[in-house]
Write a structure and sequence with these properties.
Elements (H helix, E strand, L loop, with lengths): L1 H26 L5 H4 L17 E4 L2 E4 L3 H16 L1 H25 L6 H8 L19 H6 L14 H19 L2 H10 L1 H11 L11 H18 L19 E6 L6 H7 L4 H7 L16 E6 L22
Antiparallel strand pairs: 1-2, 3-4
């Protein structure tokens, strides 16, 4: 009896393992007769995602057949494909934040593909903070944030303000593009700094950022950007199978303008039918439990619709139909 139970358990485990990995294999067009003949010693399979011959980014076609381009892209595709929870979470968050970011990029004259900078900078987390002190979805350092018009102090930190930080990022990106005329070069500068990229281009007599010999982080950065676009544009191909109800929908809110301070944000939230945590979640740029406004500046707070907080996942509308399988 025990032997039969053990044998059944092993068979069920093997079936589950194959069931999990079959979509990955199918998505990469590699589940063929040759692979059928492979005799694995473990009850699951891992496959390498296919590297495309080329990819277009912000209107520029990047050839991925050259050995160095191909292998760098291969590394980042594997990284995104097998960082399962992070990549899946990014796709879910994109349904909430891409509708916010995309119109701003368009209005500012920045190519839509630059939204993937926010993906690789912060995984679309509004609360992202690096060990170096870069904060927010676009990961501005304090000095740079202030240079591009963001208020950054202990009470207010607009690096965490999605709309304002996106506009600040657009200003930086357009300034860099006026210097380089190449959006991938702009991306490299976003990571490594304009001074370094300008200096290295001159030293190495290179015209394109992808041909530069740079520190590993910046060298990988450009191809992480390309891989992010590839995977998030077609997640099913890379084994990510989501239903519309699993995406995070935008939550309706109203805007309240204030020109004075707020002594107690917890009481303010309660007066508006919210918890303090909900108020901070929708306004992460509020960095303390009060709003100090001695100069009488104008701030706009988002107050979520109390009824919409309990949304029906089955009514979620996909921002991109390619993200879901239903």
């Amino acid at each position: 009896m025990k032997k039969n139970f053990s044998r059944i358990s092993v068979l069920l485990f093997a079936a589950f393992g194959c069931g999990v990995m079959l979509p990955v294999l199918w998505g990469n067009d590699t589940f063929d007769n040759e692979r059928h003949s492979v005799k694995s010693e473990v009850p699951y399979c891992v496959t390498s995602p296919a590297v495309p011959a080329s990819i277009t980014f912000a209107g520029q076609e990047i050839d991925l057949q050259r050995y160095d381009h191909r292998e760098r892209m291969d590394r980042e595709l594997m990284s995104f494909t097998y960082m399962h929870s992070t990549t899946m979470l990014v796709i879910k968050r994109a349904n909430r934040f891409f509708p916010v970011i995309e119109p701003i990029l368009k209005a500012e004259g920045v190519p839509d593909d630059l939204k993937y900078l926010a993906v690789i900078e912060s995984s679309l987390s509004t609360l992202a903070r690096s060990s170096a002190g870069a904060c927010g979805m676009w990961q501005f350092m304090p000095k740079t944030g202030r240079e591009y018009g963001l208020e950054v102090n202990d009470n207010i930190d607009e690096r965490y303000h999605v709309e304002k930080a996106t506009r600040a990022a657009c200003a930086y990106l357009k300034e860099a593009y006026s210097k380089y005329g190449d959006w991938l070069c702009v991306a490299a500068a976003y990571n490594g700094g304009q001074g370094r990229i300008t200096s290295e281009k001159a030293k190495q007599q290179a015209t394109r950022a992808v041909d530069l010999w740079l520190v590993e982080e910046t060298s990988r950065y450009m191809f992480r950007l390309l891989a992010a676009k590839a995977v998030i544009s077609a997640p099913e191909r890379y084994g990510f199978l989501l239903k519309r109800e699993q995406l995070y929908p935008p939550i309706p809110y109203k805007e309240v303008t204030v020109t004075t301070g707020i002594d107690n944000l917890a009481q303010f939230a309660r007066d508006n039918g919210l918890t303090y945590a909900q108020l901070k979640d929708f306004n992460p740029w509020l960095r303390d439990n009060f709003l100090q406004n001695k100069s009488g500046r104008t701030y706009v707070l988002k107050l979520p619709d109390a009824n919409a907080l309990f949304y029906n996942p089955k009514k979620t509308v996909p921002h991109d139909k390619n993200w879901v399988i239903d």
